[in-house]
């Protein structure tokens, strides 16, 4: 599906360039260069020139970000650990579900397992996460819907509710067979249906187990079966545009973004009620993502990425520069 993911971003950026009156040229290695009125910028998949490498490095360190957010927004109880200190993670297990993930420099759900309740669950999840980083993170799993708030230069440009991947029973096929059928649809329809294939992993097994099902279970006709708690493998139609949200939630998420100095940020929250502040609902800020994936904002009916034009427009704006006199004075002092 890597090719199909690449095709989605090519479609999104070319369409955005046409909408704002910019030219686009494909460079080697999947890079696309855009030009308009003497300004140029480049993009590679969901990567743009809006945020610098140091900011990306900071945002990729989940424990560091969580520690910075703790004074600003509610976050889930969390702890870092390594293979040799796994006992500290054991101490967090209390029978309620937890999430285990790599602590640094991953995205798109890589290495994440939800529904971790037992020591056996923890061992399996650690084996998955440790393939991506030596430092791991365990946090309490918070019930509620998953929302992505996309901010550009401190302004909210879109909110989507990201529903988990699911299949619908036909009364005769097992969950495993329904997953295979869905993946066949994805192969045929490509990024117009989904950006990735459904993978059968520990997160799927634990999500099914939480409702008394396995891959061999045969759901009833028209029964909705949620396959995963990690939402990154969902379909385009499972990302729902949200028109209203509590203003205090929006303000809290904006403060998180500003405090980290990120220009283009996707703030992920979990809350059972988006009409009240997180502190009232028991919701939390999960992550603040740089280089946020744009597929969550793809409209499969209109065949367009709603946010790509605004992002490209921002990347093509003239950079703020110091007046020539100030630059000259600083150069003289430096010399």
UniProtKB/TrEMBL annotation:
<protein>
    <recommendedName>
        <fullName>ATP-grasp domain-containing protein</fullName>
    </recommendedName>
</protein>
<dbReference type="GO" id="GO:0005524">
    <property type="term" value="F:ATP binding"/>
</dbReference>
<dbReference type="GO" id="GO:0046872">
    <property type="term" value="F:metal ion binding"/>
</dbReference>
<keyword id="KW-0067">ATP-binding</keyword>
<keyword id="KW-0547">Nucleotide-binding</keyword>
<feature type="domain" description="ATP-grasp">
    <location>
        <begin position="64"/>
        <end position="316"/>
    </location>
</feature>
<dbReference type="InterPro" id="IPR011761">
    <property type="entry name" value="ATP-grasp"/>
</dbReference>
